[in-house]
Amino acid sequence: MELRELPAGSPARSRHSRSALIFLISAIAAALVSMPLLRAVGMVLWPVFVIAWLINLGAAWHLAQWARQQGRSAWGFGLPAAFGTVASIVVYVLLALLGPKAAVH
């Protein structure tokens, strides 16, 4: 499979970064909303972290695709992002700061 270079501002390139950000915000919001609800009804709190982590897996997948589009290792950025929301935020910032990898001629 040939990896074609997409323009920097193309919709396909920005879609994965935007989707990853949406998943990250959703994971944080789900944790913030569900923790007081579970505490109010007297339930254990571990489902909060499981729900946030499952939502975070979507962010990790989009971060891996974004890294691949930049010419970087999808596993190298996607796998650490799968460990949790904080790791995903770090990977998101790294990818945003690094930008597309320069083509080797």
Quickly list its features:
105 residues; mainly alpha; 4 helices; membrane; transmembrane; transmembrane helix; Transmembrane protein
Can you walk me through this structure?
The protein has 105 residues and is mainly α. It has one domain. It has helices at 11-40, 46-69, 74-81, 85-98. 26% of the residues are buried. The chain crosses the membrane at residues 20-38, 44-64, 76-98. Keywords: Membrane, Transmembrane, Transmembrane helix. This is Transmembrane protein.
Shape: elongated
What is the number of helices?
4
Biggest β-sheet description:
none
Strand elements, count: 0
Number of domains: 1
Radius of gyration based on Cα positions: 16 Å
Order of SSEs: HHHH
The helix fraction, in percent, is over 70%
* Strand fraction: under 5%
Structural class: mainly alpha
